[in-house]
Amino acid sequence: MTLLDEIPETRYLQLAETLAAAIHRGTLPPGSRLPSVRSCAQSHSVSINTVVAAYRQLEDRGLIEARPQSGFYVRATLPALKTASAPSNRVEQPADDVLALIDTVFAAQQNPAFTNLSLACPQTVDFYPGGKLGADVVITVTPPA
């Protein structure tokens, strides 16, 4: 039984968390080389694909970097924590040109020659000739007398 068996997540996330904790504790200091994919897979009893996915997860978090033909290394500078900014309480009024654009759209929708293609079912008979199709179906389905 390994440490990975204790955490109820997917294997690669478990491994990524284990390695991230080692990086934050200083067990894997900045600039140090991570174990090769094969040796990490053997030592944690996981597949090579699991280790690759865990290393990619750590890369996405900015904790490690891949060096071509050399392996994976702990980044020299770890990403800084993001600070949250307070949301603005002020709501800005829309610009006059936005209101004019909205008026133009609503006016165009009142035009009978306008077909709104953003609707799931345009309202003109040119697109869906239901009446004509209905008559054809009745003729086709009705048995000859």
From TrEMBL:
One molecular function GO term is:
DNA binding
Q: Which Pfam families match?
A: GntR
What highest taxon heads this organism's lineage?
Answer: Bacteria
- Keyword terms: DNA-binding, Pyridoxal phosphate, Transcription, Transcription regulation
Q: Which CDD domains match?
A: WHTH_GntR
The HTH gntR-type domain is annotated at: 9-77
Enumerate the InterPro entries for this protein.
HTH_trans_reg/aminotransferase, Tscrpt_reg_HTH_GntR, WH-like_DNA-bd_sf, WH_DNA-bd_sf
- The protein's name in its UniProt record: Uncharacterized HTH-type transcriptional regulator yjiR
* Organism per entry: Serratia fonticola
Gene field? yjiR_2
